[in-house]
Write a structure and sequence with these properties.
Strands 1, 2, 3, 4, 5, 6, 7 and 15 form an 8-stranded mixed beta sheet that branches. A 4-stranded antiparallel beta sheet has the order 9-10-11-12, sandwiched between helices. It has a 3-stranded antiparallel beta sheet with strand order 13-8-14, with no helix packed on it. The protein is about 35% helix and about 25% strand. The chain contains 11 helices and 15 strands. The longest helix is centred in the middle third of the chain and has 18 residues. It folds into 2 domains: about 190 residues, Aminopeptidase, CATH 3.40.630.30; about 130 residues, Aminopeptidase. By secondary structure, it is α+β, with helices and mostly antiparallel strands. Helix 5 packs across helix 8 and helix 6 packs across helix 7.
Amino acid sequence: MEWLWTKEKEWWDKWDLFNNSTARGHYLQLSDWLFSYHIFGFETELLVGLENNEICLGYGIIKVKYLLFKFYIINNGPIIREGYESYLEEAIQFFLDKSKKDKAFYCHMCLPVLEEGTLPFALSRSSLPNNSLYFTGKMGMLYKIVFSLGGLLWVNLDYVNEEERLADFNIKTRRDIRASQRKGLVMIEAQTNDQVEEAYHCIALNAKAKGFSVRPWKEFKQYLLDSYKKGFIIFLMAYKDNECKGAMMLLKVNEKYTYVMGGYKREKPDLLAGYFLQWEATKMLMQKGVKGYDISLGGSKGVMDFKLSFGPIAYTYVQYRYWVLSPLKHTIYSRFYPFLVKNRKIIVRLMKSASKIVKP
């Protein structure tokens, strides 16, 4: 196996093709998602394992720097083609060596290995030896700087037809879906950049009303439009009276679809736009022959209650692991951490300005 660290666009393009060619590919490792952190002054770098100049495994890392403090993060990786699981330990070693060599004081990774069960979209627990380097790290993560996932929340769509799928939901979910069909809503899939923006604004307004945090359009715009253009993002919108009443965002990598976020206008009487769109998405995916989708782990109690109403099965990854590589820097940084969190927006603006100054 030949290993290569690179920042070259040619290899990032090849990485996206690889990521989209394997069932284990994940949207968190697509270049556009990783590059979306550049707006904060973060950097990215790619490690690939090559056989006959073809990518067999790898990961993109996010490199965060606040003054003298460097963090290295793998948000979901490595991505490994079936048959190359034996190189997992080497890939972990490369990450730890890279972090140490570049004088990062802290690093963490989210390894897509299932605690129990098997799915074609992640490594099984048998892929990870009990004496793995992964377990030399401490459980959890000290600093939640970038978004990671702890597993999948899988909604089964392997049914003979839509009615059979509907009948297998619980009574309340069936009732809400059927009621939403009588509200005069129409599902529209975003076809233009303006519609993508409209859908995201609907989601963002809902998040603001509920006290959730999503990235502002101006920060996320490039990622959303680039990924939409490449076919990785699908926005579905619920319209009534020529107004968007709700929207949801699906991400597609290979043949795996993931529900990432949604937002719905609260009206009286309730239009039940959330149930409407999830059901419309279900019908759309079943028509494509898709056997299931990831409704995604995480969210507030209300969000999780909504997701769980569709009867998903939870598949969790082995816990995140982190390494403190410089105890002295960690001690210093941890004392300033509450201040940095409180003043995050100011610091991000300063980092953006600094990154523009140092660029040639």
